Amino acid sequence: MTIAVIFDCDGVLVDSERLVTQVESEHIKRLGLELSPEEARVSFLGLTVTDTAARIQQRLGKSLPPEWLHDWGMWTALMLTRSLRAVPGVSAVVEGLHRNGVPISVASQSPLPRVQLSLAVTGLTQYFGEQVFTATMDAVNTCSPKYCVSPVTASESCTRGSGD
Description:
- The chain is mainly α.
- The protein has 2 domains: 5-14 and 85-159, Rossmann fold, CATH 3.40.50; 17-83, Putative phosphatase, domain 2 (DNA polymerase, domain 1), CATH 1.10.150.240.
- The chain is built from 7 helices and 5 strands; from the N terminus they run βαααααβααβββ.
């Protein structure tokens, strides 16, 4: 029997949630909508960027300015590069699994560039390689030869090849 471990990124591998909700709160204020970091967390936790933007537009009652999403992404990236840390103890767990040959991957609702940035900033990229999957990826084209993770159903994994 092959065992694989699938990690969520935000809040599991990296301590990003408070940073991201701080950026969301500050950036949303520029639109005239007051939302504390805690309210942003409750409102947007687990949503994709598209779903978050739709929810913000709904609250505003109008479309977001064209540059708003780009600016939001850039401010988020800046905050992550300045302040992001791995969740305490997770590096040792990931390294131990990797060292023992347990297949590991990341499945996240966040955009792929944000997940890749988070892993790079925290030094975790080396353990996951190509095994990073997000909600916006095409599940059919994201399988490795050994095992695959569908970003749509991240709770399932499948084994391919000889009995590892």
